[in-house]
Amino acid sequence: MSGQATFADWIAVDWGTSNLRAWAMRGTAPVADAGSDKGMGSLEPDDFEPALLKLIEPWLGMARMPVIACGMVGARQGWIEAPYAEVPCPPVGASPIKPVVTDSRIDVTILPGLSQTSPADVMRGEETQIAGYLAVVPDFDGILCLPGTHTKWVQISAGEVVSFRTYMTGELFALMSEQSVLRHSMDDAWDEDAFLSAIRKGMADPQALAGRFFALRAEGLVSTTSPGAAKARLSGLLIGSELAAAKPYWLGQRVALLGAGRLASLYAKALEAEGALPETADVTRATLAGLTAAYQKLKDTI
Q: Which of 68, 149, 220, 249 is least surrounded, with the fewest CB atoms within 10 Å of its CB?
């Protein structure tokens, strides 16, 4: 599909920190899609409407088009802040918010994120993916893991988010592999055995991580350790320590991974190495299903 002109009933939007993605929807089915690099992080409040219109203009007619958006567009630094709904609650159920728009052809609704008081935590965008997953698997009770820059572990029961924890593992990996002294020991190669071995070490001895990180650099200087092995070990140590911390969530539970690409595959391998049998689901499908569920719930009011 592409961003070609088409007739749509409504428009679904996933607006993150780095990217903007939109789908022209006819009922529950996407009939066109488009994307740009105009994420929340690169925009001022007055820039959001022009960035959206530039992307979806081919899909607009004379009638007012409902636009349902999720993600960082509703952050404090976004278009307009959408207040959080506090767990336990359904993933998408709180009151959405509407930014003021100047173009009469669009009616924009931004979905709220979720918050947790103790321990303090928040999410934006993932709640819509969770709602979409539950729309497809309505009887799911267990743990959803959403791998990403900030990975979420989410407890689901009776259709509600009961609790969740966020781990900055992906961001730590990027910072350490690209900006720390370890960058001199890394390349784009990969050593699967080194990754799995590091998972076990990260799980068994997370308090030793700081020392193990520098050892990656030292091994590259005094031994024949390959850059690909060093990168795999760094990833394994970080994910292993995360699994150790999140063990109360996944141990003995039904676990589903809601993600895409290589990162989701790494989490699956890590969990399998620890005896878990994670189910998998496509994150784009879940996002669309969640936005569709929100639209169907709100369409009588927009």
A: 149
